[in-house]
Amino acid sequence: MTEIASCPAWLDRFRAQAPRLPVPPPFRPAPDARAAAVLILFGDGPDGPDVLLTERAATLNKHAGQPAFPGGRIDPEDDGPVAAALREAWEEAGVEPSGVDVLCTLPELYLSRSLHRVTPVAGWWREPSQIAPGHPGEVATVARVPIDELVDPANRLTVRHPSGLKLGPAFRVGGMLVWGFTAALLGQVLAAGGWERPWDADHVEDLPQDVLDLASRG
């Protein structure tokens, strides 16, 4: 791991807290799950501190149309989750690995819908590169989302299935509805960094039908 001389002070609390985040029982990895990694990439953008999100293409069979952190399965040729997360961010969004300093890795989380155990890798975008969807058939959008937007209580809600089952926290940012695994992890990230602001978890909305239709594919 590279020594981080340029990492800003606003990331100090996150770096200290993130490796020790608790893993709720539903997210504790199954031993036979496939290994994967995602990159939580912090930057200093035109609108202040931000984090990189992608939106998966609506044509995919799994996780279609869902906002996510760049990431995917750890390939045999990858040197572990850090290398996999950086590779995926390059392939999906054009993030130059040489411009990223790795901050830490977070505890593994279980993604039950795809049977993966996911290692979140946090990075500081020391030298930002031009970003764009790297695989148009896989990635529809790449966006730097300001942390100020993520923590704005007006952009936070709880989503539920029309059956009445609550599906967890969500964010409305950058023209995207971020929900599911990514929203749950984002919530932990914001709390670990000390950026979270009080919000109304009792503001509940049904998941839109178009999002439900895409999610039903798997």
Name the structural class. alpha+beta
Query: What is the helix tally?
Result: 5
- Rg is 16 Å
Helix content: 10-25%
The biggest sheet, with number of strands, parallel, antiparallel or mixed sense and barrel status, is: 8 strands, mixed
The percentage of residues in β strands lies in 25-35%
By DSSP, the count of extended strands is 12
Q: Which residue ranges are poorly predicted, with pLDDT under 50 across at least 5 consecutive positions?
A: none
Q: Estimate the mean pLDDT confidence.
A: 90
Description:
This protein is globular. The chain is an alpha+beta fold. Strands 1, 2, 3, 4, 5, 6, 7 and 8 form an eight-stranded mixed sheet that branches. A four-stranded mixed sheet has the order 11-10-9-12. Helix content is 21%, strand content 33%. Keywords: Hydrolase, Magnesium, Manganese, Metal-binding.
Q: What key phrases describe this protein's structure?
A:
eight-stranded mixed sheet, single chain, alpha+beta
Topology:
Layout: H1 12-17, E1 34-45, E2 48-56, E3 67-68, E4 71-73, H2 80-93, E5 100-105, E6 109-111, E7 116-125, E8 139-146, H3 147-151, E9 156-160, E10 166-173, E11 176-178, H4 180-193, E12 204-206, H5 209-215
Compact summary:
It contains five helices and twelve strands. It is of the alpha+beta class and 218 residues long. It is globular.
